């Protein structure tokens, strides 16, 4: 006889629903990162072409593209972690037994989650300070600092949740 989970229980319904919401959020964040990357590429190409033809700069391109790089990093990190496509240095790791690899992966996921919880906390704290005190970057555009930093707590929360999901899945495997 096959044991079946009651998917109609309130707990399971909530978990399934919240999982799909999180999956969509990760996908939308990653898609936004992709759109920002294309926009950045086109803006730089346009700025180079216009400067070559007219000798005039598009003054905002460098500043906006620098902000976009930060956004791409934090918006894409959760999705990259979900796909397990992040950068790894595994020269020594590959020599470990499967049991030790699993333990190291669990430890790394927990530590990563704790680090990104702290990054989210301090990122949110400083973003709120920047918003309350109306800090602006001392640049040509004078971009409000909270616009630059708000992606740090958002992306860190997504990565924090994804790292706990990785930890849970590793613990579930025997």
Question: Concise description?
Answer:
This protein is mostly helical and 174 residues long. It has 5 helices and no strands.
Topology overview:
Layout: H1 10-54, H2 61-82, H3 98-132, H4 145-149, H5 151-172
Helix pairs in contact: 1-2, 2-5, 3-5
Can you tell me about this structure?
- 74% of the residues lie in helices and 0% in strands.
- With 174 residues, it is mainly α.
- It has one domain.
- The longest helix has 45 residues, at 10-54.
- It is elongated, with a radius of gyration of 21 Å.
- The model has no long low-confidence stretch (mean pLDDT 89).
| Derived structural class | mainly alpha
Rg, Å, rounded = 21 Å
> How much strand?
under 5%
Q: N- to C-terminal separation? A: 22 Å
Quaternary assembly: single chain
Shape: elongated
What distinguishing features does this structure have?
single chain, 74% helix, mainly alpha, 174 residues, elongated
